[in-house]
Amino acid sequence: MTRRPAPVSPPVCLTIATSDSGGGAGIQADLKTMEACDAFGTSVVCATTAQNTQGVESVHVLPTGEIDAQYEAITTDFDLAGVKTGMLATGEVVARVTEYARDLDAPLVVDPVMVAASGDRLLESGGEAAYEDLVAEASLVTPNADECAVLTGIEPTDEASAREVGEELVEMGADAALVKGGHVPTDDETVRDILVTADEHGTFEHPRIESEATHGSGCTLSSAVAARLAHGDSLDAAVEAGLSLMERAIRYPLDIGGGPGAVHHLADLRDRAAREPTAEAVANCVERLVERNVAPILPEVGMNVVGATPYAETPTETAAVEGRITRTMSGIQPNRGVRFGASSHVARFLLAAREFHSEYRFAANCRFDDRIEAALDDLDWAVGEYDRSEEPEAVKTREESTMGWGTRRAFETGDGTPVAIVDRGEVGTEAMTKLLAEDGETLAERLTVLCDALESV
Q1: Where's the Thiamine-phosphate synthase ThiN domain (predicted)?
Q2: What is the mean pLDDT of the chain?
Q3: pLDDT on residue 397
Q4: How far is CA 453 from CA 284, 305, 380, 424, in A?
Q5: Would you say residue 428 has pLDDT above 80?
Q6: Positive or negative torsion for Cα 291, 297, 300, 301
């Protein structure tokens, strides 16, 4: 039987920018990001570059007639729901794109690309003055610190000056400005991005990621925001989603080329795709533990098995047994099924461990006592531990930081990468052993091996 097509209708986005032959930024980054955000990406190529992860070798600007032809082809066929601009190379191109912008009936995100992450200049000096008119047509403009200084004459050095820059850009005519804080120094390892509109300003905070692989980060952010606006999100929601996607893209960069690499434009998409297989791996691990009946290593509070997606950042992105695994008259059983966000304690431990060994994706908690300690010695595993009596007061007053502090101590003081980490507990807190593994099958194997070793002690 002949099957009928079942078409889908994603919102259509347009990027007006420059090709990056290295694939990490420019048109290539824009289209990847739009696809990751469930939007259909179209493009108008203004220039081509010969570049890679190490730098820009050359730039060739297309004739404005060719740029016009591309824009005409797109706008006469597609109903645009969101538009973004990137590297425009020359003042003439900026002026031409500004003409397009005046007739747009869609949100416009202007990423005023002027200098590459490698330090190479991407806009001729005459193009800087032309940007003022394009900024006036923007629904949102997304400059970094260097671009802020060029556009407004103000270099953002803190939140107050960043707000001042945003206010200046809104006075130029932009509906809103997102002043990116990645290049703005802070004392607390926190990046603060400032969103300014005519009515208010807001601050988005996230931990600073010490990475040189930031090639394409600005393109990724602006494309993600444009795609979310195309879906009908509010400005605040679109910016928050775009920043979250960019943060994950920087946290898990692509190790490619001879330079620092590039951001992972599809990390968020890959993470979503991994949810079901991760939950299945947790369920299969639990099934093996029930079959083996690992009751001898169950702690009093019960056991949990946790699996993180490859790009997990929060406990809500880890799958675990809801209600934990507990003893029954016939052995052990999970209280309920596997769902995301079901674990707090073990999930936070696993996420903390991934800061030191990113390949760890699964963890479980077991009891700890003298016999377990002897069994661990017999297995000759790499074992780390931490002593809660050494925990700083600043950590004790913030429960969410305990796992981070303890795990860091275990990794930094242990010999090699720990397979098991021991928390000897304290008054009111049960001593615990936590096992780690790269996959669910290996975790199940380690748990059963520990149970077998315990029985022979």
Answers
A1: 282-447
A2: 92
A3: 60
A4: 22, 20, 11, 20
A5: no
A6: negative
Residue 207 reports pLDDT greater than 60: yes
Mean pLDDT value across residues 86-94: 94
- Residue 59 reports pLDDT greater than 80: yes
**Percent of the chain clearing pLDDT 70 (strictly above):** 96
Residue 307 DSSP SS3: strand
| Domains delineated in the chain | 12-272 (3.40.1190.20), 274-455 (3.40.225.10)
Q: Are strands 190-197 and 325-328 parallel, antiparallel or unpaired?
A: unpaired
3-state secondary structure of 170: helix
Phi-psi region of 339 (alpha: psi -120 to 50; beta: other; left: phi over 0): beta
> Does 9 or 114 have the greater pLDDT score?
9
- Mark residue 216 as left, alpha or beta (left: phi above 0; alpha: psi -120 to 50; beta: remaining): left
Q: Which residues of 43-66 are buried (b: 16+ CB within 10 A; e: fewer)?
A: bbbbbbbebbbeebeebebbeeee
Which H/E stretch holds residue 439?
A: none
Q: How far apart are CA 354 and CA 349, in angstroms?
A: 9
DSSP-derived secondary structure for 151-166: HHS----SHHHHHHHH
Whole-angstrom Cα distance, residue 305 to residue 439?
Answer: 11
